[in-house]
């Protein structure tokens, strides 16, 4: 899958992370970092939904980033493989381990990430943004079982959710935003802890490598699966699960 | 720092002679500065810019159909060349372009028959003689009047306006479409570029900036969020969806990351005065392209490459989406663009020298010479240097302008405008 000897550059300090082993999964820390980036991007997309008039350029760029991550995870095989690992693990664990990754930097700064339950404020993100209305935050995964069974549908659901974001951007009826992301589980606010942990981090070494072949050129996998998933709720679950 | 202050400057533009300098702000106001005439008595006193006119160009609006507010922030100002005593400029917010006439009044009529000096109607019975009103001098008054309002033509946010060299038409560009207007006609415009996909779910690229060629009234360029520039010829077809030229630099595979596309997104595109080159600004670099060479830029300048290792943090705090502008000097030999910490950078294309300067009150006493600044990337930091981690990312210089013929620059630092002039060359 990966060209031999291809170096992946860390986004943070230019350190080379060797990713040149054909057919193997990415290192665990890289996967976690990539997952954090994916989570952060999804939150950002959501946030720009809630702004008065979303900045289309920004939304498109973030959505493209999400697609890139998705494609790489699909090619990694981690898009599917993550399910058995996640089964039985509370979603919180995964978020916490990312926080641990960033902890060395945070300790230097003398801050402790404090999950803000009830106040959906995201420090470090769009400044001045008022508290995220509870109706519009992502729901944390309810059943990891779903993921084990239907990874193909995962991809379709993911694509479908991305598409719905753009549809909603176009139609811009406030109601559809609620529809898309309903039923908040407050444990999602713990993502704050992850995100604040990343503010100012210089050495967390967020994985930034991408294989050389043009993932951008390939059509998003699972686009044919779009019709498999009709339920909006399921789509949201899958978004967060992955 | 409160980012929503109404006086945050959002655009800066000299007029074609450099006599006037216009700024637009987040509150929808336009402030025009005029250069003082250099007097023979005070040879040392170079022409300084003083406030000439202030007016409210745009007001906040509400789109009832979409339940969305339309910001009054002025995104761009473009001057028309002067054709009579009055000055004309275009100003635009996200949705509406307006043509403003700025004119002086230094005389007023006196001696009306039916009105008295205060404007009150006179009792006709008291009027026994007829006189002709005469114009008498008065204190100079500068008034701005909206002459045209070009509305309801953009579904998405307008990011650029550009006056054509024929001076009869101009274009306005939003995220997905570009429209061509005639100055005299406000109720219709021609759509000349449309990149909206039939299915919005397939949207992956938007228009980020557009500009007419300075001499060829049929040519214009537009840039995209994927780092491409398209040159279009309006003579080819009515809808210029097919470009004449396509400028794109091949990606460097060793630098690839999840942020590659975002940092390649072009935030500004400007033709050189000569019309031979275009300059583009993306997140980390400024590039100069020769119109005759589409496959790569002829020059690339690093604005703040030390940010390359910070992209994840800058993505998180949204700074990676900041849209910096870039400008040419009058002779196309020097280019300038802004950065963070109120720094701005100048690159001399001939000598290949570059300099980093700071726009701040502490460092700018009147007539003091600006001291070059330096960012320390790693290792030992010298006394005058500033380390990357100390940079203030809330102090960003997005908008700058260069006088058309002299070495005078205007730099907007949040809500402050700095004007720097060359002492000696």
UniProtKB/TrEMBL annotation, chain A:
GO terms for biological process: cell division. Residues 202-217 have a biased composition (Polar residues). Keywords: Cell cycle, Cell division. Residues 30-77 form the SERTA domain. Residues 1-25, 202-226 are annotated as: Disordered. It comes from the Eukaryota. This is Cell division cycle-associated protein 4 isoform X2. The gene is CDCA4.
TrEMBL record, chain B:
Signal peptide: none annotated. Keywords: Repeat, WD repeat. InterPro entries: PP2A_PR55 (IPR000009), PP2A_PR55_CS (IPR018067), WD40/YVTN_repeat-like_dom_sf (IPR015943), WD40_repeat_dom_sf (IPR036322), WD40_rpt (IPR001680). Belongs to the phosphatase 2A regulatory subunit B family. This is Serine/threonine-protein phosphatase 2A 55 kDa regulatory subunit B.
